[in-house]
Amino acid sequence: MLGALLECTTPEGTTVGRIVETEAYMGEDDPACHAAAGRTARTAPLYGEPGSAYVYFIYGRYWCFNAVTRAAGLPSAVLVRAVEPVTGIDLMRARRPLARSTADLTSGPGKLCMAMGIEVRHNRLPLDRRPLLIRAGERIADRDVLVTPRIGITKAADWPLRWIVKGNPFVSGRR
DNA sequence: TCGAAGATTGTCT
DNA sequence: GACAATCTTCGAG
Q1: CA nearest to nucleotide C9 C1': residue
Q2: How far is CA A174 from the centre of its chain?
Q3: What is the pLDDT of residues A9-68, one digit of tens each?
Q4: What does pTM read for this prediction?
Q5: Local structure of residue A103 (DSSP, 8 states)
Q6: Cα torsion for A111, A4, A22, A15, to the nearest 10°?
């Protein structure tokens, strides 16, 4: 998914970002995956169609966007942790008045959802059509991809399941 | 009904 | 670097 384009259309307009950071959550046997708790009202979207959205609310404040992957019934997903703004940057700025730079607009899972207007109404939507779309973008060469442990979790914190575009300034966290 | 934890961000020191 | 904000989810009682 690195290099692919994430596009979200709302009544305010369309925003597009290039995906530069992802994390994998590998089903019920992954202690950090929400599906480790089994199938509940919250995790049900993870068990849905591959290629649909899983959007959840965290820390009473923020939305996080995932693409459901693998086969139906296997609750795995890819969390999009950062995108590089491509289209609709003015709209992103309006939605994130606290952002102090362009890189601050979408360099985190909560930030990019704020900037792009992704929220619960997008939960479970298919990702191959509007309003929420992932489409092909630039191909990232393997030598430009870095794999690291996942961020911000306590369980299985050492599993190398985070992928970033090497040196990209829009990746989350501190350099 | 209650309590605790959480795939984060922003502010303050 | 520490910690507050804020609320949904789920298990226990």
Answers
A1: A42
A2: 18
A3: 999 999 999 999 999 999 999 999 999 989 998 999 999 999 999 999 999 999 999 999
A4: 0.94
A5: H
A6: 10
Residue A62: CB less than 7 A from any atom in strand C: no
Domains in chain A, number? 1
> Facing residues of A146 across strands?
A164
Q: Is residue A171 part of a domain?
A: no
Q: Give the nucleotide at minimum CA-to-C1' distance from A43.
A: C9
Alpha-carbon dihedral sign for residues A169, A145, A64, A128? positive
Residue A108 CB lies within 7 Å of the nucleic strand B: yes
Residue-wise over A70-96: b if at least 16 C-beta within 10 A, else e? eeeeebbbbbbbbbbbeebbebbeebb
Containing H/E element for A19?
A: strand A13-26
> Strand B closer than 7 Å to the CB of A25?
yes
Under 8 Å between Cβ of A54 and A68: yes
Domain residues for the domain of A55 are: 5-165
**A21 domain residue, yes or no:** yes
Tell whether A173 is covered by a domain.
Answer: no
The nucleotides of chain C lying under 7 Å from a protein CB are 5-11
Amino acid at A54: Y
Minimum CA–C1' distance nucleotide for A66: B7
Complete DSSP assignment for A38-61: -S-TTTGGGGS-TTBEEEEEETTT
